[in-house]
User: Fold these one by one.
Assistant:
Number 1:
Amino acid sequence: MHKQVTSSLLRRSFLLSRGSTNGRTPSSLRGAGASLLTTTTIIPLQQPQPQHQPYTHQHVQTRHYSSHSPMGLPPTTPRKKVTLSKLQSMYKKGEKITMITAHDFPSAHVAEHAGMDMVLVGDSLAMVALGMEDTSEVLVEEMLLHCRSVARATTRAFTVGDMPMGSYEISPQQALSTAIRFIKEGRMSAVKLEGGAEMAPTIRAITTAGIPVLAHIGLTPQRQNALGGFRVQGKSKESAKRLLRDALAVQEAGAFAMVVEAVPQEVASFITGLLKVPTIGIGAGNGTSGQVLVQADMTGNFPPGRFLPKFVKKYGDVWGEALKAIESYRDEVKGGSYPAEEHTYPMPKEEVEAFVGDVRRLMSANASETEGEKDA
Ligand code: KIV
């Protein structure tokens, strides 16, 4: 008796060819159907040889046939790892420190290739990568997941993980235990927290435990509700003095550097000149020791019409390029021009013919058998 070739039979035979039944012919497939399997699918598939140089990486296996090939190759010109003392020496020499955000492996990988000194897993993640309304929504666990993926791509840059709102304000002990998670689980080199003089005991507790802290003063987006929105800070004499007090307090508490956000250039430059640690400006003009920008903003990875703060310079058009590419793909799939011959895996002609011939023969045998059964 011949078994009818059904889609489930073909599926089982496919599975069998991939070894998922441990090479044994299932009892349900024994009989004439199994002869098809023996002649066509139990024979190991001839794997085509790769046409290209294998993509290798010292830590990851090569996969010639998978759509999920590893992203990570370190930059070809090896550079020395950026450490705290390297950052201090850059600062002392007056060399500007470059920092950018990265929220996942690819964005960290490209930052690393571009030679960024510091990579920040900012809580801007909430808005630009997770689509949240503001940064207060993002959880420690979510930050840690993204920190780990960034850490895998950064062999040279000094990495900083941003402690999210609610994970450090309650007490220095709470802050320290969160900071430890960012180092142990997030694989970061340092943590960042927002706040000035009032956070000094917290910064002290974390740095005393041996964890470097990047402070963040001026506009502190996690406190947007208290600040009355995203407002430029230090615009009046009193407010500028408060900012200076904050800068001195976080420095005194052991911060190795501080982000200074949305502050008039003159104030940021003047404060920078009074400190012994670097300032990393964002919307604070050109007189700080370094600069930071959110990667999605500066690469233009957002749709037209999105609001951009005044200080952001758009250096690229990643959105435009991605949109063009995806639209072309859509058109080519709809029009049938993709995939072309060069995107397919070759199979020896005789194998194709033998396969098609066997299946056709079995199908016609099945058809005659079914006719016979009907007539009987
Ligand atoms: O979350 C972030 O990306 C930041 C930078 C803007 C400094 O805090």
Note: The longest strand covers residues 213-218.
Number 2:
Amino acid sequence: SSDRKWWEQSVVYQVYPKSFYDSDHDGVGDLQGVIQKLDYLQELGIDVIWLSPVYSSPMDDNGYDISDYQGIAEEFGTMADMDELIAQASKRGIKLIMDLVVNHTSDEHVWFAQSKTDKNHPQRDWYIWQDGIGTGPPNSWQSVFGGSCWEYEPVTGQYYMHTFSKKQPDLNWENPQLRQAVYQMIDWWIAKGIAGFRVDAITFIKKSFDAAGQETGIVKANQCGIDTMLKELSEQSFRKHDLLTVAEAPGVSLDQLSSYVGTDGYFSMLFEFDHIDLDLAEDGRWYKPKKWSLHDFKEAISGSQTLFNEQGWGALYLENHDQPRSLNKFIEPAGIGPMSAKMLAAVYFLLKGTPFIYQGQELGMTNTSFQSVDEFNDLASIDQYEAALKEGFDEKEALRAVGNRSRDNARTPMQWSRAENGGFSTGQPWLPSNSNYQIVNAENRQDPDSVFSFYKQLINLRKNSEYTELLTYGQYEEVLGSHPDVMAYIRRNEDKAVAVLANFKNKEVEIDFPYQVKKVILTNSSETAVEHTLQPYECFVLELTN
Ligand code: TEU
């Protein structure tokens, strides 16, 4: 029908440019490196690249601290490289979406330089300034990366607020001039020919200083009043164009999903956190891992999938640059390998929504191991490590506990080949390569049994098969809901039904699957039919006789 959208039929691939491919061998990935690997992405079959930030930045948070929205960071290249990337991608039928980081800027952005020096400057109000109380900050809110979210600025004697690091001062979205400046910047990028945005940390833009109590804890997302701001952003900016907008939206509950991504929603789709933060303690401390079961995962997935049957659209993902690798999160250590990597792929890829692949996921890349705290690059990992020590962990325990969840796990160089540093760079990589690059890499991708080939087949199923219509728009239905080890669902429309069955455990399990199978469409198994058991990590994509 005519209200169908191009992004409903797309597969997105996230590139973290710093770690993707280093074309000039200075140890840091770059835009020319992305251009050189476009053929690889075309071979995989993706439609859209989400490019993590490449804007000018002092790189306190690897580019999520932007000092000029209309400039490119020197280590990544130039604006000419950016234009070339857009054009070269487009030549291959690949669209590009940028990361839109507008909850905050870098403290080195000219807006902030102007704001901080003079209380009467017209741009003072573009950031959030308050007087301290006594000798302390305005309140006791904590930043996401640890410590107070307030930083004292001696020039004017006030504090500015930062949800993330102190080099990432929050913009004041209550200020109409600031909002217009943001919309203009967005328009400028759209005019360059990009297809949309991944909208960073957007649920943090509304602060609720007048809410009762100034309780401790991390700054809260998705506060009352945010709707007005998001509605304006959507109406005055996004909706004037045909864009893919995907909101990073921690703090949005199921009953709020429709206002975010329903028919008149603010965004095309959003990243939920329920299924991805299953292992995360309430207070966000990585070294206090929370126990979770497959049941919790299934419940999180089914909750939003059921909603998407009625309205809205899902952004399907298991990994990104902030998360440990999915193999380490969801699979027990002894079971990690191509078999379980394919199982995880089948499980999330055929849900209702737009699948996102994070670089290296299609190869089965895994977490790395950290020998010392000096090997952490990520500021959040360093903060968590220090907090763990304060809570009485010894250095070894802290390293192990934080290492399991460190964002650096996802940021090690992409493993292209068996060559030194996994073929990422002949220079010294900014973050050491995972030592398994000689086994896990892109060299064997043409092997029909490779994880890469499996992803390719999944993409093909979604995009160019007799199941395309069904897998894109068919209804979602959970099956075997109470099975403790198996996740299963059916996608269904008027003329077809496809089931996905997956064993999450490193043991043979029994299943009672009461449907008649017409044909095995895809499997990671050597079996050609589903019996009453599933082998460790076995998965099947089946056509049913409706
Ligand atoms: O992350 C925002 C976010 O919500 C974080 O709390 C995220 O869950 C956290 O990084 C996990 O430790 C976005 C980006 O994805 C992240 O890379 C940036 O560091 C952050 O915004 C600030 O821009």
Note: The chain is about 25% helix and 15% strand.
